[in-house]
Amino acid sequence: MSKKSCLISSVIALVIVIIIVACGLVCMLLSKVVSDYDFDASRVAEEKVIEKGGDDKIAIIKIEGTIMDTDTSSSLLGTSYASSQQIIKYLNYVIEDDSIKGVILSIDSPGGDVYATDIVYNKVEEVQSYGKKVVTLMKNTAASGGYYIAAGTDKIVASPITITGSIGVRADVQSLDGLYEKLGIETRTFTNSGGNYKTGEGYFDDNPDGEEDEILQTIIDEYFDRFVNIVSEGRGMEKDELLEYADGRIFSGTQAKEKGLIDDLGGYELALESVESLAGISNATVVEYQENNFWTSLAGYVSNVVNPTASVIKLIDPTPGVKLKYLYTK
Predict the structure, then answer these.
(1) What is the dihedral of CA 194, 196, 197, 201, to 10 degrees?
(2) Residue spans of beta strands (DSSP E) within 69-184
């Protein structure tokens, strides 16, 4: 690469960093301005009636987007999530409302963070422990963590063209060293004596099978084993049979039905009919929860209109550390 090309690349990288930092400062300023605001008071979840029926109710709870352990579904930095905290809050409403006899989990998600996915799965199990039936309605995508959550529900309905499966775990480890080098930024790290694995440098050395890589691999394999056990138990499948295609591959809805990963092909009407049948009710009132939160709306507006880096930030995660995910990416 010529010196001129290197200079242009460095300038472009510097401009991107400056824009990101500037947007971050704007977000920090907004946070400071509203620091005394009672956010919890603004987050009022309302029960919206979708179909009016009898006294018994079925709740629709949506899991849309990447599943993350966050308390909001959008941020000022241009990202949008399936908020595990919000989903759990809605599932708690289901537990507390005796008139709700069942739930339709409407999933359109490629999965997400391992922890966030697991706590949603555990909360769904808790809902079921109260005798409430849970049916999954898979939409466009219900893969990896999306399937992880669905696997333990009482029934799974998907479209023939749903993308599902992707049973597996991935770990993303990112380094900004190359960018820092171009910008002339140098970092020197000190650790405690004997802290050989503290910095994570072994992930980027020339040995892909080094000790540090092996340590991470054991954790990934442990989480994968949990995923497989959840699917095996939830779907009533032999683990050996499941392992034949639990290699991260995806399936269409039709293929998933052939493999026993889902129960039926259909849409909303079939999911509603299924959950009513399982709950032993009919003509239920169908409801869903919606949160009227000014600040979430503002965040969505800023991310899409004001923040010019929104589309870039959605593709990268600049925060340090290993990110373990039940996530399918195209």
Answers:
(1) 150
(2) 81-83, 100-109, 111-113, 133-143, 155-158, 163-165, 170-172
| pLDDT (tens digit per residue) in 159-214 | 999 999 999 999 887 776 677 777 777 777 777 877 777 767 666 777 777 788 89
**Given 9, 198, 239, 282, which residue is catalytic?**
198
What pTM, to 2 d.p., does this model score? 0.78
Residue 144 is among the residues annotated as catalytic for this protein: yes
Task: Report how far residue 299's alpha carbon sits from residue 65's, in angstroms, rounded to the nearest whole number.
Answer: 16
Rounded CA-CA distance 132/92 in Å is 12
Amino acid at 145: G
- Report the run of H or E that residue 57 belongs to, with start and end: strand 57-64
From residue 250, alpha-carbon distances to 112, 164, 329 in Å are 16, 6, 11
Alpha-carbon torsion 112, 118, 120, 125, what sign? positive
Active-site entry in 75, 144, 166, 232: 144
Q: Is 303 a catalytic residue?
A: no
Task: Give the single-character DSSP code of 284.
Answer: P
